[in-house]
């Protein structure tokens, strides 16, 4: 029997959305759906246009990109309380990396086109969302850099 999951409660609890006003949480609940990924399932591919933003509730997802001649390079794993798919909010909306579930994962999937309309209609809210997205991008860049230094060495 499928357990009923309250999207509004998940939004109130998730670190990305917990400090949003109640009104915005209610609006987000209308554009969100609960999704499940099984271990090994590809969520999206690098370069793909994929207009969903995911808030990870539980589970783990590996981020990767392809290096010519080397293959898939996994540079970070995102898990509970983190965000997946930030590039769905930045033109040209192509995924900066691929994503694959490392273990069974539950997430809230937000329609990024509708989210962007919300952000345009309420620029203070939009500013707050983009502040959070910039932090995510900076963290991901740092993680990729550190992983590359681990692999190729930091010596000069």
Descriptive terms for the model:
single chain, 156 residues, alpha+beta, Jelly Rolls, 4-stranded antiparallel beta sheet, 29% strand
Provide an overview of this structure.
With 156 residues, the protein is of the alpha+beta class. It has one domain (7-150): Jelly Rolls (Sandwich). The chain contains 4 helices and 8 strands; from the N terminus they run H-H-E-E-E-E-E-E-E-E-H-H. It has helices at 7-13, 22-30, 112-121, 123-152; strands at residues 32-37, 42-44, 52-58, 60-67, 71-79, 83-84, 98-101, 105-111. Strands 1-8-3-6 form a 4-stranded antiparallel sheet. Helix 1 (7-13) packs across helix 2 (22-30) and helix 3 (112-121) packs across helix 4. It starts with 6 loop residues before the first helix and ends with a helix. The model has no long low-confidence stretch (mean pLDDT 91).
């Amino acid at each position: 029997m499928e357990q009923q999951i309250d999207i509004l409660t998940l939004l109130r609890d998730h670190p990305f959305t917990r400090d949003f006003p109640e009104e915005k949480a209610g609006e987000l609940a209308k554009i969100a759906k609960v999704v499940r990924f099984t271990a090994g399932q590809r969520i999206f591919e690098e370069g793909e246009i994929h207009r969903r933003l995911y808030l990870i509730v539980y589970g783990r997802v590996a981020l990767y990109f392809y290096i010519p001649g080397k293959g898939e390079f996994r540079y970070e794993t995102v898990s509970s309380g983190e965000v997946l798919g930030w590039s769905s909010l930045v033109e040209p909306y192509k995924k900066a990396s691929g994503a694959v579930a490392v273990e069974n994962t539950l997430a809230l999937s937000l329609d990024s086109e509708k989210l962007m309309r919300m952000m345009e209609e309420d620029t203070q809210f939009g500013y707050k969302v983009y502040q959070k997205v910039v932090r995510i991008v900076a963290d991901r860049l740092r993680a990729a850099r550190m992983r590359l230094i681990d692999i190729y060495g930091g010596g000069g």
